[in-house]
């Protein structure tokens, strides 16, 4: 029973990482119609920036520097490369973002080497907390709470601010937003930077839990795409539901029969695609340009 | 073209379209289209399906950029600007399909027009006074309201901004006769408010009942410019270009 509860909490932590990456993917797709295979690279860059800052300056600064650095990188990438691919077919977007992801991975390998790395949290956060029958690392619980707070803030930004209103309108009809005088380009840049910053922050914050190597971006990207498909492309709550579902499924399957833990998420995706092709909370309506 | 411009001398030209040529790929859709609208005028652009009416409106707002020619608003060139800039200068298009944001509520659809406006136009109270049905539907999503309500919402969105020229594309299309009359009344109120309007309509008699002047476009070329009365009186003209 203890192992079950531990797996359940482990699934929550893993699922929240997927949620954070998938929310970025899904709001970027919703607003820009961009299938962004470079999104995992944002996670990896955030993780390495966090690692360097944590080791040389302090853990607190890592959580500040990583999202800012990744957001700046994303804005540069958007301006210099991706903007000219917004109106291209998905294959072209897929190829260019996949290429960017490979360049980032190899650059990280050149700078940091291929070995796995991790940084330790300060002593005060290394303890454990007793939760009923189990003891669980305090930092993992803090991480889960932090991701939930961050997702709540992102939701408030999207649902309660004027920028969020433009973003939501742009998800449905970019042309009409512009016909009303809305600056969809600026809103898109903010969304892209926000999605990247979330991935970067989670990358930095998760490094004490999951060690990193240059391939980390892809390792988290692929399940996060599964999450987006399961939850419904473009749906915030779909990403939340899908992320938690996939995280728990992977973690509990790992407990029951570890070799199947990666296969099960693709089976889940296939099942959802068969029964509800638009995803659990996705809309079947064709979205306008 | 049969008749010269008939804007009264005292009325200043607000919008001038001068010899624009617009293409879809290699297809030459608008051929040297010219028209002008005086401040406070309501002008109808008439024509059959697919002759270039909507493309004219799209060319004015920068949605479909003309390859040559000029479009000016109070003398300021619009060609070369993007849709956002043109909208912020005061040219507002209510498109044929209404393009209400179906994922947002009616209240949010109205709010986004206020948020994106360079300068405010009508107040919300004024909008609710003119479109009382919208007030009753504020919490409904854009896909939960009727076609007539969508049209009212699309027009209200435009009026919440400081609109100098309102472009209405087929505002009565697909609506029940009773709702068509409501929309016609709204257009009359817009006219009474002194808002310069270019109205694209296939519903000939609806357009003639509100327009000060009208143009007829056929195969991408302006074929007629004159008064509604001239169109009413000229059966051959109507038969030739409008098939009515």
Folded structure, characterized:
The complex is a heterodimer of chains A (289) and B (244). With 289 residues, chain A is an all-alpha fold. Helix content of chain A is 72%, strand content 3%. A two-stranded antiparallel ribbon of chain A has the order 1-2. The longest helix of chain A has 31 residues, at 2-32. Chain A is globular and about 60 Å long. In chain A, 49% of the residues are buried. The model of chain A has no long low-confidence stretch (mean pLDDT 92). Chain B has a single domain (13-242), classed as P-loop containing nucleotide triphosphate hydrolases (Rossmann fold). Chain B has ten helices and ten strands. The radius of gyration of chain B is 17 Å and the shape is globular. Chain A binds chain B through residues 162, 165-166, 168-169, 171-173, 175-185, 285, 288, and chain B through 61, 63, 82-84, 87-88, 92-93, 95, 99, 101-104, 108, 111-113, 115-118, 157, 161.
């Amino acid at each position: 029973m203890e192992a079950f509860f531990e797996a359940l909490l482990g699934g929550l932590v893993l699922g929240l990482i997927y949620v954070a990456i998938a929310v970025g993917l899904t709001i970027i797709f919703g607003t820009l119609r961009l299938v962004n295979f470079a999104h995992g690279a944002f996670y990896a860059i955030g993780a390495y920036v966090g690692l360097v800052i944590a080791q040389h300056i302090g853990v607190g600064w890592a959580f500040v520097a990583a999202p800012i650095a990744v957001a700046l990188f994303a804005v540069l990438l958007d301006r210099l490369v991706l903007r000219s691919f917004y109106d291209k077919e998905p294959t072209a977007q897929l190829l260019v973002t996949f290429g960017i992801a490979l360049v980032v991975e190899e650059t990280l390998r050149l700078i940091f080497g291929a070995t796995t790395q991790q940084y330790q949290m300060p002593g005060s956060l290394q303890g454990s907390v007793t939760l009923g029958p189990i003891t669980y690392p305090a930092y993992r619980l803090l991480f889960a709470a932090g991701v939930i707070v961050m997702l709540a803030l992102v939701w408030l930004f999207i649902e309660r601010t004027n920028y969020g209103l433009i973003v939501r309108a742009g998800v449905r009809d970019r042309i009409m937003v512009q016909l009303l005088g809305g600056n969809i380009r600026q809103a898109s840049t903010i969304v892209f930077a926000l999605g990247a910053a979330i991935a970067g922050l989670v990358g930095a914050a998760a490094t004490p839990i999951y060690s990193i190597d240059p391939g980390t971006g892809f390792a988290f990207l692929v399940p996060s795409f599964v999450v987006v498909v399961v939850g419904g492309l473009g749906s915030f709550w779909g990403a939340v539901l899908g992320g938690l579902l996939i995280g728990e499924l992977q973690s509990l399957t790992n407990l029951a029969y570890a070799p199947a833990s990666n296969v099960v998420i693709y089976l889940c995706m296939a099942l959802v695609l068969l029964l509800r092709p638009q995803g659990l909370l996705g809309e079947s309506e064709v979205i306008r340009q | 073209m049969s008749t010269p411009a008939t804007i009264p001398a005292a009325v200043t030209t607000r919008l001038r379209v001068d010899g624009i040529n617009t293409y879809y790929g290699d297809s030459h859709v608008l051929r040297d289209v010219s028209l002008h609208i005086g401040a406070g005028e309501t002008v109808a652009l008439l024509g059959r399906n697919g002759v270039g009416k909507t493309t004219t409106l799209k060319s004015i707002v920068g949605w479909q950029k003309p390859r040559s020619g000029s479009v000016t608003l109070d003398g300021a060139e619009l060609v070369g600007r993007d849709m956002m800039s043109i909208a912020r200068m005061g040219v507002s298009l209510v498109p044929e399909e209404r393009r209400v944001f179906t994922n947002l509520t009616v209240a949010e659809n109205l709010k986004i027009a206020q948020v994106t406006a360079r300068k405010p136009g009508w107040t919300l109270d004024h909008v609710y006074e003119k479109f009382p049905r919208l007030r009753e539907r504020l919490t409904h999503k854009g896909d939960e309201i009727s076609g007539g309500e969508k049209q009212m919402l699309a027009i209200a969105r435009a009026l919440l901004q400081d609109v100098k020229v309102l472009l209405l594309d087929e505002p009565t299309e697909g609506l029940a006769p009773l709702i068509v009359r409501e929309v016609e009344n709204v257009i009359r109120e817009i006219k009474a408010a002194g808002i310069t309007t270019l109205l694209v309509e296939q519903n000939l008699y609806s357009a003639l009942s509100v327009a000060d002047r009208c143009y007829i476009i056929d195969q991408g070329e302006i074929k007629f410019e004159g008064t509604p009365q001239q169109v009413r009186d000229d059966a051959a003209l109507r038969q030739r270009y409008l098939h009515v």
